[in-house]
Amino acid sequence: MKTTRLVTALSAIILSAAVLGLPSLQADTPQMPITDIRPGMVGVGRTVFSGTQVEEFRAHILGVIENVIGTQRNLILARLEGGPLATTGVIAGMSGSPVYIDGKLIGAVSYALGSFPKEPIAGITPIAEMTDATSITSTRAPGARVKVEFPLSRDGLLQAFRKALNWNRPFADRPDDAQFIGSTGLSGVGGREIATMLRPIATPLVMSGFEPDVASTLGAAFQDQGFVPMAGAAGTHPGEMPFDGPLKPGDAIGVTFVNGDLELGATGTVTHIDGDRVYAFGHPMYNLGPTEFPMTRAYVYTVLPSLFSSAKLSATSEVIGTFTQDRATAIAGRLGPAPHMLPVTMTLEADRGGKRTFKFNVVRDQLFTPLMTYTALVNTLGSYERQFGTASYSVAGKVNLKKYEAVSFDNLFAGDNSPSNASAYVVAPISALINNDYENVDIDSLELTVKSTEEPLTATVERVWLDDTRPRAGRTVPLKVLLRTYRGEDLLRTIPIAIPSNASGSLVVMVSDGQRLSQSEQREARQPQPRSVPQLIRSLNKARQNSTLYVKLLASDPGAVVRGELLSSLPPSVLAVLESDRSGGSFNPLSSATIGEWELPTDHVINGVRTLTIQVAN
């Protein structure tokens, strides 16, 4: 009996200790409503300036700014004091730092007075607005589906981000949009004017493993949206102090976009924990709405002071949960399992010998999956090109899908921008699948093998001809194609083409590389547009290859594209029926018909197009 009581008592003690160790008690933190905030109050803020230890600073309340137009949000204005703030000003990475008055949570440090501030003036997002905004369960807005054109350029990426993700705006666009309750001004600036100067505090962007030019392009796009790109690392590193118990308000916290052999993530501060739910930042990361981004612990090495913008030099660490919301006033998520990421395996084989495999994971997101996959691939191939010189890349592999057949890759790239073109070739289908309008496609993994050679394997189509200038219908004739390689060497290739037995009159033979042929078909509506996911996958798997010569025999017979399917040489009666029902938008007439197609694989990237008009004798 005594033994049973002892076991029961010990069990109770262990259970109590476990509960006390969990962050769920953070939910008991009392909160102060915005209506109780008064100028002159002094709050206590919490953040990490170095390592993992949470330190306190003071927040002298100056007043409350109300945005009376549009969002009708509030922002508590405060002057910060303590730690390094007198010399650094508001620090990038402080976003989310909680502030308490009389033990009650009022909100998160989230806004600052832009660059070159004379004193650490900050805006504090009220905690109620953070929790309310992140409770929304709406789906991703169509405008947040960023259309990034590949191959990617610095200007193209910046333009795409600005078009769809222009959230890094001042708290108020005009002084008349804001009402300031508090002191009449600050350093000669009116209270309402301050609202137009306050912007979200910059977020440190941790980048590791990226080549300088790739990091510059990617960093510029993120910087334009309120991030501070910083060289760093991720994971656990020797010499770092252990974390001080479970996650708590004031701790540094991270968001991961890429992990593995390459690392890309952002860091901020935890504001509030309610059970397993975590609130941070006090402003959006990209205001994407629902997300599935890994939530990590974060380590702060030091604060880098700067007149332009001081920042925490930090690193992400182990994954502790998932950020599920990215809203205008906060990011939020849950502690627990990590989200499913897209695993990418890339094996690089060089003709001079040597083989290396890279493995990394990319977040699953309509914007970041294609963007980060492209960046990682072009970074790896570009690094090889700089090390060994101009190269040609043979790309083979597949994108594995959970419900459908895989999308396969098999292509050759050479010449200028071959790393970018090869990466775009892989990522464009991924982008098409993720952003299709028909259904959600679950991508399981990406597997690639890239074989490189130092020779630029390119060839130009110089001339095409037939020895028989008047071929007869029903006969097979040899089509001669003269190619010229990058070294000036002439290559003669012969393609047997069969003239249909019912052909007559004038026909056109077109010899083309894959890219120009696809562009021509798009202009003439010969390439049917997919109208379902299976059609999209079939279209992607039939994509033309750079190293193949394509030959088409064209006749002036009308045809049409009907519901995404190409129909050639239709009888007039059928065309009349189809044309009478054009209101559905599924009919597109064609002025000519393809009566023969042939392909010739080569060992070079083909460039050029030639046409030949022939007269077929009956």
Structure, explained:
Strands 1-2-3-6-5-4 form a six-stranded antiparallel β-barrel. Strands 13-14-15-18-17-16 form a six-stranded antiparallel beta barrel. It folds into three domains: 28-335, no CATH class; 342-453, no CATH class; 458-616, no CATH class. It has 618 residues and is of the alpha+beta class. Helix 4 (154-164) packs parallel to helix 6 and helix 7 (368-388) packs antiparallel against helix 8. It contains eleven helices and 34 strands. Strand 2 (54-67) and strand 3 (74-81) form a beta hairpin. The radius of gyration is 31 Å and the shape is elongated. The model is unreliable at 1-26 (pLDDT under 50).
Outline of this structure?
With 618 residues, the chain is α+β, with helices and mostly antiparallel strands. The protein is 21% helix and 41% strand. The protein folds into three domains: 308 residues, no CATH class; 112 residues, no CATH class; 159 residues, no CATH class.
Sequence-ordered SSE layout with sheet pairings:
Blueprint: H1 2-21, E1 42-48, E2 54-67, E3 74-81, H2 85-88, E4 98-101, E5 104-112, E6 121-126, H3 127-133, H4 154-164, E7 178-182, E8 185-186, E9 189-190, H5 191-197, E10 199-200, E11 203-208, H6 212-224, E12 227-231, E13 252-260, E14 263-274, E15 277-280, E16 289-304, E17 311-327, E18 330-335, E19 342-350, E20 355-362, H7 368-388, E21 392-401, E22 407-413, H8 418-434, E23 443-453, E24 458-466, E25 476-485, E26 490-498, E27 505-512, H9 514-523, H10 533-541, E28 548-555, E29 559-562, E30 565-567, H11 572-579, E31 587-590, E32 593-601, E33 605-607, E34 609-616
Parallel strand pairs: 11-12, 19-23, 24-33
Antiparallel strand pairs: 1-2, 1-4, 2-3, 2-7, 3-6, 4-5, 5-6, 5-10, 8-9, 11-14, 13-14, 13-16, 13-20, 14-15, 15-18, 16-17, 17-18, 19-20, 21-22, 21-23, 24-25, 25-26, 27-28, 27-34, 28-32, 29-30, 29-31
Helix pairs in contact: 4-6, 7-8
